Amino acid sequence: DQQVKQNSPSLSVQEGRISILNCDYTNSMFDYFLWYKKYPAEGPTFLISISSIKDKNEDGRFTVFLNKSAKHLSLHIVPSQPGDSAVYFCAAGRTGNQFYFGTGTSLTVIP
Amino acid sequence: GAVVSQHPSWVICKSGTSVKIECRSLDFQATTMFWYRQFPKQSLMLMATSNEGSKATYEQGVEKDKFLINHASLTLSTLTVTSAHPEDSSFYICSATGTGGGYEQYFGPGTRLTVT
Quick one: pLDDT band at residue B55, thresholds 50, 70, 90? Predict the structure, then answer.
């Protein structure tokens, strides 16, 4: 049973527009959430994180929003750039325990 | 940021042989290392968690006698796929958490294993 779900396998966005990637989780005990970016044939690289005590965390063009009541988090990229084209994984877990990953969303930013 | 390396990046081996994959933390001490496996178009699946100096904890369904994990030092963990079969062909990725208390896992670049 998948504890973290990314229901959109792919997303296409025009350069300069906003990209919104969504992630849902099932375990209300999860208290830390991360987003990773992965290029083909490379390992995932950490992008941004948020703890359950916050509902928003911003880093440059990347903002993660957490809605604990809905068990939902999203990653906003604005403005989107062609170099942002990659697969984005969300991960969630409890402090000190393993993290569970979603299946990823492939983002394509069209120049 | 923290750097984790893996070696080799790509290996091809024949059925029945064993393959060792190394995971190194280059600029921090990794108290815990995780080994993941990724099938095409699927999520990362945790195989096992290893803490330095102790036996690895394997996830349900992962054969510990087939996937040998050794975390002998704070900077090195190895995964040995024993008696490899074509179905073991996959992308293996390690990650590490350091002693600094952060929750981020720093990932290696991955090793693509092809068993012929």
Answer: confident
| Strand pairing report for B19-25 and B10-13 | unpaired
* pLDDT digit string, tens, across residues B91-114: 899 988 866 545 667 888 889 999
Q: Give pLDDT tens digits for B34-48.
A: 899 987 767 788 899
Cβ–Cβ contact B42 with A under 8 A: yes
Which bin fits A30, alpha (ψ -120 to 50), beta or left (φ > 0)? Answer: beta
Q: How far is CA B108 from CA A23, A105, A108, B23, B77, in A?
A: 24, 20, 24, 7, 12
Which amino acid, residue A100?
Y
The more confident residue out of B79 and B45 is B79
Strands (E), B1-116: 4-7, 10-13, 19-25, 30-38, 44-51, 57-58, 67-73, 76-81, 90-98, 106-107, 111-115
Which among A68, A58, A72 is positioned nearest to A21, based on CA atoms?
A72
Is A43–B6 a contact, with Cβ atoms under 8 angstroms apart? yes
CA end-to-end distance (rounded Å), chain A: 38
> What's residue A82's pLDDT?
96
Would the CB atoms of B43 and A45 count as touching at under 8 Å? Answer: no
